[in-house]
Amino acid sequence: MHKKLLPLIILTFFIHASQSQTIQVGKGSYTTKFPGTDVAGRNGFPSGTPYLIDSLKKKPVPTNDWWSAKVKNAHCDNLFNYPLTLKTVNGGLVTSYIPWGVISD
Question: What is this structure's pTM?
């Protein structure tokens, strides 16, 4: 019975590996397909429409930089681009030098 299951297990592994499209980069990797959410429902796609200029609307947007919150929100507090802390407001951008802590009103 085990001899019949082994090819099925190997085939299942290769089908899954080919669909995940994992790209090796040095000692790390990334996938070109959405991995899905975890059991707690985290790691989903962000809700809403991103705030982007027209020329960027059809391009991938990095979401791992200090300004990432601005892509999802019209205004953001606590944008840390050390040694500066920034905050967006209707009139523009508030820039402060705060060696520690957060911006508030």
Answer: 0.45
